[in-house]
Design goal:
The protein starts with a strand and ends with a helix. The chain contains 9 helices and 9 strands. The chain has 242 residues and is of the alpha/beta class. The protein has a 7-stranded mixed β-sheet with strand order 5-4-3-6-7-9-8, with helices on both faces. A two-stranded antiparallel ribbon has the order 1-2. Helices cover 41% and strands 22% of the residues.
Length: 242
Amino acid sequence: MGYLFGYTMINLPKLDSRLQTAVAYLRKGAVMYDVGTDHAYLPIYSVAAGISSSAVASDINEGPTERARANVASYGMNDKITVIRSDGLSCVRDYSPSDIVIFGMGGELIAGIIEKAPYVKNENIRLILQPMTCSDILREFLAENGFEIKGETLSEDTGKIYVTICAEYSGVSKVLSDTERIFGEKNITENAENPIFSRLVHKTETAYETRLRGKAGAGHDTSEEERILSEIKKMKEELQIK
């Protein structure tokens, strides 16, 4: 059995496949700020494993905040993990974190949280994000606002596909193509052989085909769907996705 800073691995919180994708992007010795922490499992794990030097576990709701406090106390980590009730990143400046994690929210909401926090426009800060929906909107927001996407990781749980995006501020804005916005440039260039990526492409293609049929049946313009489906087909051919 392995030991992590005095904690047996078997006693550490068990991270599901979604949360595990965040761990690889956390930097050794960084201060982590977890937005929407719920049970505070990720901060507890990362600090106990010696990855994050300390952490802030934040949530907007009282119930999750109380659960997080109870869990942090039960692991004897009150000196390493601060639990706060906070709306998004409204209190982020008070703790000067360098790794910021925002999981389990829609892409539009995550973009809104980042937009309201100019503090994160700092090349030393890393954003680790997992949009539950609208990842295309989040990628477009990041690219337009000078955040460079450093990596993406795909995970799957009970048939649902999740994407984790790691981004850092560069100050250079970028225009994404349709496929880069929808699937992620890093997934296209680095994860194309991942079976999860193939499933994501097929599910997305089917969704656009359904949308096209619906709009066509209602007599609406389908030029956007036609363009995107054409780009997806071209990408599939280039990547040899069957």
